[in-house]
């Protein structure tokens, strides 16, 4: 999992119904003529206060004049009766949204919405989710899943204190439905609502949330534009009816200490490189009591160490005794981290085949987030993990695309409650093709709406953050971002693309133009692809690159 850091509902899984209020407008907001106008407003507000005190009810009035006729086939091409781009519309999970010039979500991505793999009891994603939930059980924790992936920009970034220039906000990294709504990039987008629920449901003190999350990213065996995350949090309230605030605080502190003591002991080997909270790199929050922060952090770390031990045990049980011995004891370590929404923050890494792997991020929740959700007198911790990474290690699944396979040879290998090692079915041949092109020095066109037609709207391919990097080594902004080709390949080849890599780049000595060459590896996990079909896919990729980004094929 790549964590959203920089120098850095609903369905309850148990039968309980969650009372998280719906905070989304049924129909998206009005068209904004300037591409970034609404986020500029948000950015300006953010600069004044990274944690605006707010009612997060983002709903806005629907202007019927701005509503296009509803069609039902994913991202709308132009409305035949009205060609204005602002009349374009898409329906996601039954809710219509007006598209605008911020839109970059594609029909192929929307086609993956609603699979709810975390809900299919015999699927490795669901088996992993249940295993994690078993370490954070009811009634102390509510276990939620969240099927609708559309959230507001506010919930995904603003309320969590993401700076206005955080690269995660850029259109090269995130799928925007329109300027106010996006496909959540992490489960933390539901923190605010889940904390609000905690504020009213006094019988629980924490929650887990599992959901599908979406990110524009590179194409390789461990990255897919949709993956799953799980998020957990736990809070402690000030004891009501205490005679004084001081007494209430003391009682809360001793409660945390008692609960810390009651946590199950683990026998894993832990190296802790994040024990002191440096004022410069990983500060505690000024309003917190240092003793209490130490206790909350210990409770957080111990809870997650317990999780790691349980997962390790489950994985061991799937091995035969000799393999168990060979795999040795579990070793984990804590390192300092940075997340906009926690401080201090940590990452947990696990030693896997001789390498330290980053597995999860966590920390003490930024107090303004709790305050904004009605938990003014609480202190708490939160964590987030990527489920695929866990599941790939646990089940020995070598390619992330397999999670999305309908092939019974994959699906029938797994059953609820059991960790079993994946047996590869035969590997089908790969076929690679190169695409080489001169990149266009002027901005290309990013909106996938009507992508085949060369557009003159001049919308930049990328916006914000590191968005305009032409390649990982490029420092000068250019009109092309590597994630753009990834998106085109994904849209055309879907899961038939195994990986896409930059294999050559050079700058013409006299013209100064830059040429890039990408190698696309096409391989089906389920059958042998014919030459003709690969050629056809590749031709489409070439045509789309030329028409959508104005690159000149070589
Ligand atoms: N939302 C983070 C990500 O996607 C993961 C995370 C880190 C969640 C720390 C948390 C947290 O709740 O406390 O990268």
What would you say this structure looks like, in words?
This protein is α+β, with helices and mostly antiparallel strands and 554 residues long. It has 13 helices and 17 strands. The strands form 4 sheets. The protein has a 9-stranded mixed sheet with strand order 1-4-7-8-13-12-11-10-9. Helix 3 crosses helix 10, helix 6 runs parallel beside helix 7 and helix 12 crosses helix 13. It starts with 10 loop residues before the first strand and ends with a strand. About 20% of the residues have low confidence. Bound molecules: 3,4-dihydroxyphenylalanine.
Topology diagram in text:
Elements: E1 11-12, H1 37-48, E2 89-92, E3 95-98, H2 107-110, H3 124-134, E4 141-145, E5 150-152, H4 153-156, E6 181-183, H5 191-200, E7 206-214, E8 226-237, H6 245-262, E9 269-272, H7 290-317, H8 321-327, E10 331-339, E11 342-352, E12 355-365, H9 367-372, E13 378-386, H10 387-395, H11 408-411, E14 431-438, H12 482-493, E15 497-507, E16 514-522, H13 531-549, E17 552-553
Parallel strand pairs: 4-7, 9-10
Antiparallel strand pairs: 1-4, 2-3, 5-6, 7-8, 8-13, 10-11, 11-12, 12-13, 14-16, 14-17, 15-16
Helix pairs in contact: 3-10, 6-7, 12-13
The structure holds 3,4-dihydroxyphenylalanine.
Strands, total number = 17
Total of DSSP H or I helical runs spanning 4+ residues: 13
Low-pLDDT regions: 6-48, 53-74, 76-85, 443-478
Structural class: alpha+beta
Distance linking N and C termini: 35 Å
Q: How would the global form be characterised?
A: globular
β-strand amount: 15-25%
pLDDT averaged residue by residue: 80
- Cofactors and ligands: 3,4-dihydroxyphenylalanine
Q: Roughly how many Å is the radius of gyration?
A: 24 Å
**What proportion of the residues is helical, as a percent range?**
25-40%
- Biggest β-sheet description: 9 strands, mixed
What sequence of helices (H) and strands (E) makes up the elements?
Answer: EHEEHHEEHEHEEHEHHEEEHEHHEHEEHE
Main-sheet strand order equals 1-4-7-8-13-12-11-10-9
């Amino acid at each position: 999992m790549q964590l959203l850091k920089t120098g850095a509902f609903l369905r309850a899984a148990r039968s309980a119904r969650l009372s998280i209020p719906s905070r989304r407008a049924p129909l998206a907001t009005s068209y904004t003529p300037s591409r970034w106008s609404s986020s500029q407003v948000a950015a300006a507000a953010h600069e004044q206060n990274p944690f605006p005190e707010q009612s997060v009810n983002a709903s806005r009035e629907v202007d019927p004049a701005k509503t296009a006729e509803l069609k039902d086939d994913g991202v709308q091409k132009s409305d035949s009766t009205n060609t204005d781009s602002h009349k374009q519309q898409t329906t996601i999970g039954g809710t219509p949204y007006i598209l605008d010039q911020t839109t970059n979500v594609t029909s192929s991505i929307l086609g993956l919405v609603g699979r709810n793999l975390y809900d299919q009891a015999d699927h490795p994603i669901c088996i992993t989710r249940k295993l994690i939930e078993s370490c954070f059980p009811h009634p102390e924790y509510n276990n939620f899943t969240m099927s609708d992936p559309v959230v507001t920009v506010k919930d995904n970034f603003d309320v969590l204190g993401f700076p206005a220039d955080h690269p995660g906000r850029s259109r090269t990294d995130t799928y925007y439905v329109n300027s106010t709504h996006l496909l959540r990039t992490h489960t933390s987008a539901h923190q605010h609502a889940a904390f609000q629920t905690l504020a009213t449901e006094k019988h629980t003190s924490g929650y887990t949330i599992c959901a599908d999350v979406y990110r524009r990213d590179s194409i390789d065996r461990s990255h897919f534009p949709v993956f799953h995350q799980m998020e957990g949090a736990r809070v402690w309230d000030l004891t009501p009816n205490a005679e004084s605030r001081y007494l209430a605080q003391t009682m809360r502190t001793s409660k945390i200490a008692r609960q810390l003591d009651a946590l199950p002991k683990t026998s894993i080997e832990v190296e802790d490189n994040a024990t002191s909270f440096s004022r410069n790199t990983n500060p505690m929050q000024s309003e917190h009591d240092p003793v209490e922060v130490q206790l909350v952090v210990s409770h957080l770390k111990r809870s997650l160490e317990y999780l790691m031990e349980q997962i390790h045990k489950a994985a061991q049980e799937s091995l035969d005794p000799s393999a168990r011995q060979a795999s040795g004891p579990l070793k984990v370590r804590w390192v300092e981290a940075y997340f906009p929404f926690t401080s201090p923050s940590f990452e947990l890494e696990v030693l896997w085949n001789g390498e330290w792997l980053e597995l999860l991020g966590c920390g003490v929740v930024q107090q303004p987030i709790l305050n904004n959700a009605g938990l003014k007198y609480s202190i708490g911790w939160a964590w987030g993990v990527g489920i695929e990474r866990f599941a790939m290690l646990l089940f020995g699944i070598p390619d992330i695309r397999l999670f999305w396979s309908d092939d019974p040879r994959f699906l029938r290998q797994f059953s609820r409650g059991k960790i079993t090692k994946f047996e590869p079915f035969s590997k089908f041949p790969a076929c690679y093709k190169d695409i080489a092109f001169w990149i266009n020095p002027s901005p290309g066109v990013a909106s996938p709406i009507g992508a085949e037609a060369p557009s003159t709207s001049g919308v930049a391919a990328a916006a914000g953050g590191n968005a305009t990097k032409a390649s990982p080594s490029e420092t000068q902004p250019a009109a092309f971002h590597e994630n753009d080709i990834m998106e085109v390949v994904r849209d055309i080849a879907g899961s038939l693309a195994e990986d896409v890599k930059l294999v050559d780049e050079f700058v013409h000595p006299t013209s100064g133009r830059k040429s890039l060459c990408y190698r696309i590896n096409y391989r089906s996990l389920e059958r042998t692809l014919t030459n003709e079909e690969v050629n056809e896919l590749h031709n489409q990729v070439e045509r789309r690159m030329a028409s959508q980004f104005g690159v000149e094929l070589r």
